[in-house]
Write a structure and sequence with these properties.
Elements: E1 2-5, E2 23-32, H1 52-69, E3 71-80, H2 85-94, E4 99-103, H3 106-116, E5 121-124, E6 141-143, H4 148-161, E7 166-172, H5 175-191, E8 194-201, H6 213-225, E9 233-237, E10 257-259, E11 264-266, H7 277-288, H8 294-313, H9 318-325, E12 353-356, E13 361-365
Parallel strand pairs: 1-3, 2-3, 2-4, 4-5, 5-6, 7-8, 7-9, 9-10
Antiparallel strand pairs: 11-12, 12-13
Family: Belongs to the leucine-binding protein family.
Pfam family, one: Peripla_BP_6
Protein name: ABC transporter substrate-binding protein
Length: about 400
């Protein structure tokens, strides 16, 4: 029972010796770090144990039950770059591990899924692209991270409840920004909102955090957002973290901001207290000595899915665990007020989405007025009749 370090890993402490004769359930967490600009705010700088801390808590949680069920859980933590990810995955597979939590971008996640094939099950704990759940879906991948479509639908439901149907959409100039903007367009059409205009904030590569940066932004953002048609709220699609945090309080018209800044849809938030969230937050903060991030929650949930399946089936056989996870008998608790399950048409984990500001959770979607013949959670994201996924 414990956390082991791989060749390129951040070392984690070994929790305890394995119980003699216990069933061994092995997993790995592969975090692929891409080079790029630091976040606009230094408060958003990623900690060294991002994702891994959540995995460590999940391993502890799995072992708490496992000790009574004759099961031991072992998790290996590995860091890689996009260039070394394939080699690290080969090492994981050569060691016989058949459950791999992946924290990577869309392209890397897809490449790793194709590399793995039928040799293991991947649990995507970061990539949000809708294509990964659609035309590029893979049967060996479970998507624990919510998709762009789920996040956009969650916020769209709330905006319609607020009677804010007129949106000014501002997107970044990178391909990933366009993918997110497409989710906003789809959500607007789905729930009856109107995008009154789209604007592109071009990334010119200039300095963002110089001594005079705030002065430039204070002058630029009002000008960039002026002369827009009348709108209720500005929705930002800034997956690249280039401009959105500058928008609140700097728009030409006095309007709220949502999407990539302002009111933000998230899988988890460090201020969440409902449904047992307080004790979960306390346990994480005691372990990691910092507030939780979304990647931590998603890695935790991924490993809890494996642990829950092992406990319920009383098995360590990877094939049996995979079959159970993908069956209609499986569910797992996630401190979100209801059981979480896996969609059979694209392997996306159904889950409520938190609508958050910097300091609290404003609401949780799905909103009460949005009903569904099977599950209200399927009002978020791509439903069965809409899917482009074919395994």
């Amino acid at each position: 029972m414990g956390l082991l370090a791989g060749a390129a890993a951040l070392a984690g402490p070994v929790m305890a010796e394995a119980q003699p004769g216990a069933q061994q359930i092995r997993a790995a967490v592969l975090r692929v770090d891409s080079p790029g600009l630091p976040p606009i705010s230094r408060l958003d700088l990623p900690p060294e144990d991002l994702g891994f801390a959540g995995a460590r808590l999940a391993t502890q949680d799995n072992d708490t039950t496992g000790r009574f069920m004759g099961q031991d859980f072992e998790t290996v933590e590995i860091t890689a770059t996009p260039e070394t990810a394939a080699a690290e995955m080969d090492k994981i597979l050569e060691g016989g591990t058949q459950f791999v939590v992946v924290l990577a971008d869309d392209a890397t996640t897809l490449a790793l899924a194709d590399q793995v094939g039928e040799r293991a099950m991947l649990l995507n704990a970061r990539a949000r692209g809708d294509a990964l759940r659609g035309a590029d879906c893979r049967a060996n991948t479970i998507h624990v991270a919510p998709s762009h479509a789920m996040l956009a639908d969650a916020l769209a439901q709330f905006l319609m409840w607020k009677n804010w149907p007129e949106w000014l959409l501002v997107k970044g100039s990178h391909p990933e920004d366009e993918n997110l903007a497409a989710a906003w367009r789809r959500a607007a059409a789905k729930f009856g909102a109107t995008i009154v205009e789209e604007r592109v904030f071009a990334d010119t590569g200039g300095a963002r955090a110089t001594d005079s940066g705030h002065v430039q932004v204070q002058a630029q953002m009002p000008v960039f957002t002026q002369r827009a048609p009348d709108y209720d709220i500005l929705v930002a699609a800034d997956e690249s973290d280039i401009f959105a945090p500058y928008l609140p309080y700097l728009t030409w018209d006095p309007r709220p901001v949502a999407g990539s800044a302002g009111l933000v849809p998230r899988s988890w938030h460090p201020a969440m207290e409902a449904w047992g969230g307080m004790q979960y937050q306390n346990r994480f903060e005691k372990l990691a000595n910092r507030p939780i991030r979304e990647e931590d929650y998603q890695a935790w949930l991924a490993l809890r899915i494996v642990g829950e399946a092992a406990t319920r089936t009383q098995s360590a056989d990877p094939a049996e665990l995979r079959e159970f996870i993908l069956s209609d008998q499986f569910d797992v608790a996630g401190f979100k007020g209801q059981k979480l399950t896996v969609r059979d048409w694209d392997h996306q984990v159904r889950q409520p989405i938190l609508l958050t500001t910097g300091v609290l959770t404003t609401s949780v979607s799905p909103q009460d007025q949005y009903l569904h013949q099977t599950s209200a959670l399927d009002t978020l994201g791509i439903d069965r009749p809409e899917t482009e996924c074919s395994f």
